[in-house]
Structures are given as C-alpha cells and as structure tokens.
C-alpha cells in the first residue's frame, strides 16, 4: 500500500501562448483535507482540470493507489472516484435534487427510471450530509448552501474517494460555512480525501491538514497547517513580503468636484445626495443589492434617473447625459464587471486603452496607430501593467492587470472624477495592494475618487469619508477616523419591520 | 516564420485558394467538354473562360451593394433581413413617383432625378425604421424585428403596385438605368461591365471606413462587446442607427441596378430572397454573425466566388440557377465551420512549437 492515495508528479500543461503548469507536483493522503492556495492565475484550476480529465497534461504522471493512470476524459476520473464540486454548482435548477444527484447513472427498471428508488437513495445521501430538505425539492428553489449539499451528495453517490471543493464557501454566510466545514470533516473521518481550493484563510486554517502553494504555474511547497500562518502563506503566494497593504496618504482636500442632490430612480434608489472633493477618496458601501451600482450607473448616463440633480465643478449636468458626455466632463466609471463592461477581452491592451479617446487618435480622417501606441504605452508604464507588450490580448491578463487596463482607459480620457465599482473584486492579494497604492497616488494628484466596495477593510482603510447605503437610500455618512466596522454594518442593515 | 504562417492561415487567403480551385476545376471541365466536341468533328464552345466570366459577372453582383451595407450590420453583431424588401419598396416608390410626376407634367429628366432621389431616401427611411426599432427594443432580436419590417415593406410594395408591373423600358431617361447595368468598357481586349467598377468603388469606400477610420473601430467595438463600448464612451445607439440607415441606402442602390437589369421594370415581387444572398456573401467573406470581426476584402472575394460558382455550375454542368443554390448553401455551411477548425489547428501548431522551444532550452 502506497503512502499516498494520489500522487501527481512533474505535471506540465501548455496552452497556446502560456505555460499554465510547469513541473508541478502534489500528493494526497487518504482521509486528509489538503488545501491548494495561490493567486488568480497561479494554475490551481488548470491543475484540478488535469486531475479530473478535462485537460490532458503535456508532461508528468498521475499515480492513484500506486498505479499509473491516464485521465483521458472526465468519465475516467469519475470511474476512479474523483469528483469535483464547484463554486457555481453546475446543476439543473428545474430538476429535483434526486434527479440532479443521479443524473447520468439513474436506477433503471427495464427501460424506465425507478424514481421511487432514486428518491429513497437520494434522501439517504442527503440525510448523511445533514440536509434539511426533501430529495424531491427542485434545485432552483434551494439556497446556494443547500445546492452545494446536493453536489456533495452527487459526489458521494458516485462513490467518490477524492473530493475536490473549489471555493466552496465563496457564496456562503458564516453559519453556512461552518456547517459545510463540519460536513467536510465528517467525510474526511470516513476516509474521503478532500482537495480544498480557497482564497479564504478561515477555510484553510479552519479545515485543512496540509497546504500546498502554487505561484505563476510553479509548485512552491507543501506544509503541515500547524507550520503555517497567514503572513507566511501570503509571502509564498505573492513571492515577496507585502509591506504597507493600505498605503493611504494624507492629502489636502480641495474644492468640491461632484455634488449629487436627491437623485432618485423608482424601484432602485431614492433621494441619494452626496458630494466628493478633489484629493478625496470617498467610500460608498452597503450590502449587495443596496443600490450602489444603480446610483453610479444613473450618474454616468447608462440608465436614466427620474429626478434629482448632479453638479460637476458646480455646473449642473443635463438630464439627457450619456457616458460620452460624462467622459467629456472628465468623469470616469470603472464598472463592476470588468470582463463584460470594462474590457474588450479579445482586443489588445492598446486597442482597449485608446477606445475612449479614439476620436483623438487620428491624422485628419484616418486612424493613427502611432497616437494609439503613444497613449497605451504611457499607461502601461504608469500603471505597471504586467504584459510583454501593449499588443497582448487583455483577455490573457490576470484579474489585477485587467483592472489596471480599465483604469488606464479612464486616465487616458483625462479623468478628474473617477468612480471605482468594486475595484478589487476577484483580484489577488498582490494586485490589490498595487490598486490601493494607485488610488492613493491618484487622490494625491488632486483627483476625486468614489469607491464602491463591500469589503470592510478597504472601505475603512482607504476612505476619507464613508457613505452607507441600505435599501436604495443613504442611511449614514461617516468620517473614516475612529470608525468601527460595527457602526458601518448597523447602518447597512435593512431596518427591521414589525410584522 | 510565425508571422508568415498566421498570414497564410488568414481567411482571405483561404478564399483566394477556393477561388483558384473552383477556377481550375471549371476550366478542366470546359476543356474536357470541348475536347469531346472536337472529337466529334465540331467546334469548341469554350463556355467558361476569363472573358466570358467577366462579361457575365454583372448579374451576380446585383446583391453586392446590399452586401456591403450588410457587412456593417453583421460587424456590429446585428442582422437585417429586410434589405430585399427595402430595395423593392425603394424601386416601387421610384416608379410610382416618376409616373405621378410625368402625369403631372414634369419634364422627364427632372422627374427621373426626383424619382432616383426618392428611391435612395426610401432606402434610408427603411433603414431608419429598422435602426430605431433595434436600438429602442434591445430585448427583441434584430432578426425578428427585421423579419417584421421585411413583411411590412413587402406589404407596402403590394399596396402600391398590386400585381401590376410598371414598365419604363420605352422611356429614354430610364434607359440610363439599363446603361448603368449593361454598360461596359474595354480594357486590354476584355469587355468589363461598369457595374464592377461601381461595386469596387463602393467597396473601397467601405474598406476605408471599416479598416482605416475611427468609425470602423467603433463599429467592431460595438460588435465585440456592446456594453463595454457604451462604457467606453461610444454613442452606441446613435452609431448603430446610422449604420442601419446606410444599410438601407445600399439596398436602394442595389435596387437601381436591379431595375436596370430587369429592362427598367418594377414589380412588387422583385428581389425576393436577395437579403439571403447578401448575408451569405458577407458570412463567406469572413464576417462573424456574432459581430466584431470581418474584412471587406473577404466580401469582395466571396462576391466573385459566388459568381464563378453560379456561372460554372450553371453553364458547365447544366444545373438550373435555383439548383445551384444547393452548392452555394453547402459552401456557406462548410465555410462557416472552417474558422473554428482552423483555430484549433493553429493552436495545436503553437503548442507544438512551444514544446520544441521548451525542449531546446532544457
């Protein structure tokens, strides 16, 4: 009997243009929870996909139970008892939990599916993972946490020996996460080996027995969890120590750049008033769905507000505003979804950067490539965008660098007021620090920054002032100094109504 | 080396190869048929050669102007299946306004000039209507909207004309349209129809617009990602509306040539299905229906390819024109699938090359 249930040795995977995995090794013991950590783009998902047979490695070997295995397709992996549950459960919302669990391996009676048996077996599996809903419930009606239980039950129904959990707690509340932890521990004690992929240190320290770090497609090391702390893991993930994570500079607050008065849009937000000064970083926070993004979209002219006024440099902005008009008034918006709203992913950095000012990149009537390169090279240097050249496709960049390209688009358009909607969402630790540095620099150059964010640490550490929104209106304005997280959260909570 | 290979794999290069292959096959078939005739002691017919192809090209170009407008629409990820009906409506308005003006005592020349202007304006108006509907009702597919306007425009043609055929073939001023279509100049011993020059002239304008100006960049930005284009400060609705108007105008220009080809007659059922030829030519030319990419050079090449296929299959194999559509459709399907296959192959080649360089550095 081999020491390890699974050994993956010297795995290399090459995609057109990039080496996604370079000589990566990993091993897994029976009945352990092994965390894989790394920044976005470190190669974690590709690694998992070579294990589940989605990708074939270009080098290296996979040894399961002492036997060399070729994972030629996902079915082979399934046959060997390898199952994965993903962040966004890939289930069929209109089918019942039982149907989801046994899809592809139904109980047959002649040509018919035996639903009574399926429902009974599904209920047994669901009960074993502590589910509190019937197997006949349609998956679409379940919460995310419950859907994940269905996925786990599905993995168990396939007699999984190795269970891969990819960001399992990303969409879960604290209590739901705790419940998931105890299920994971129970499975481990029953002998299932679990590979855990997570960005959350609570998951890693609360659950894992060992942790392996990947960085830039390379294997960095494996440690027992007792040997690790957060600082040391971050250092290995990023490759160097992160000094001041929130480099907020004290800057002189200048005159008022933006003032919004009683802006309303029926059904989304009402009577929203705030202002923003030169050199100031203002945080706009609140729970998801409080209406923050809708407010800035209405200011930017993507949607129409029903009433209210907006002043830029003291001048009233007309009601028929469009993104073009706002950009001409030096107002820029970094949208929440950079992949869908911020970038043309199949375009180069160069073409993305020049798009907002494309009408200025001409010699009379013809496009001037020279002028485009001038501005995009300048932005690449200024923002330290990590890419071979500005001709690199923006889709090939990491989340943090993509975000920098979107910022570059705003700066190219000579923006003075910039709204950043969740600027560090899906951005890894190293790039986060760079984005904070950039915000601080821009503010000290006299720009006004409005940052929408749900992440309390960045709201509290980067802002001069903070507005909190709840249910479509601003409930509170705070000075950042001396503020506690509880005060913000209290303001963000919807008011309890008497029933 | 890498540059050369990716250049070789360009879509336009594939179209040139396809054109050459078709040409060689047709020439061989023609020579074979002629050899058989000569063996029987008769004279060679020589139905397929460069000069005959050039001479007969005009009829296969009637939808080419529409295709240029369609390239703008497909480049933005939209579609307009009403252009055939827009063209017929434009021609109908031209015929009716001319007849009314003549009956009202206007001089032939003036009436004709007004009628042609009315034709172009009608095309623009059709495009405007499409554009407004598409940009105002984003929740509806452009395909469905323009299906509606197609029926609407065609219905108008019947409302105006019924089953009547407006005949102006005796009218000297309308003869100008016939000359527009039939005219030819002799270059180096070859008779070249003037419609080819008209097409190439328009194609040049569209090429410059799409590939050398900011307008083209904006168009492809909209096609690639409409939301990101909006957030980048492009006035998406206004721009898209303008492109639909231009597309409608190009349909009206196709209508002018069509009336010329039909001996200066106007009927309500003319140009039925032309929108499909226009779309087919643009898609074969390398424009993706998802928007965001394409090249006018490809459209020019595929107009020629469609002409050569129709002429070759028609004269050499004796297929009726409508039967030839079978082959045209087949080519279109294969051509639409090919880019995916080619991307796969070129990715494989790239990965292999990376392997080699990795091995070499180890």
Largest sheet of chain A: 6 strands, mixed
Number of discrete domains of chain B: 1
Shape of chain A: globular
Q: What summary fits the major beta sheet of chain B?
A: 2 strands, antiparallel
Global geometry of chain B: flat
Portion in strands of chain B:
under 5%
**Helix coverage percent of chain A:** 25-40%
Spatial order of the strands forming the largest sheet of chain B: 1-4
Question: What features would you describe in this structure?
Answer:
The complex is a heterodimer of chains A (499) and B (362). With 499 residues, chain A is an alpha/beta fold. In chain A, helix 13 (369-382) packs across helix 14 (399-412) and helix 14 runs parallel beside helix 15. Chain B is mainly alpha-helical and 362 residues long. Chain B has one domain (63-337). Chain B has helices at 2-8, 11-39, 50-56, 64-75, 83-103, 108-136, 142-161, 172-182, 194-212, 214-224, 226-231, 236-261, 274-284, 296-317, 321-361; strands at residues 166-167, 184-187, 190-193, 265-266. In chain B, a hairpin with a 2-residue loop joins strand 2 (184-187) and strand 3. The longest helix of chain B is centred in the C-terminal third of the chain and has 41 residues, at 321-361. Chain B starts with a helix and ends with a helix. Chain A binds chain B through residues 14-17, 19, 58, 300, 302, 322-324, 327-328, 333, 335, 340-347, 351, 355-356, 358-359, 361-362, 365-367, 409, 413, and chain B through 212-214, 216-218, 221, 224-225, 227-235, 292, 347, 350-351, 354-355, 358.
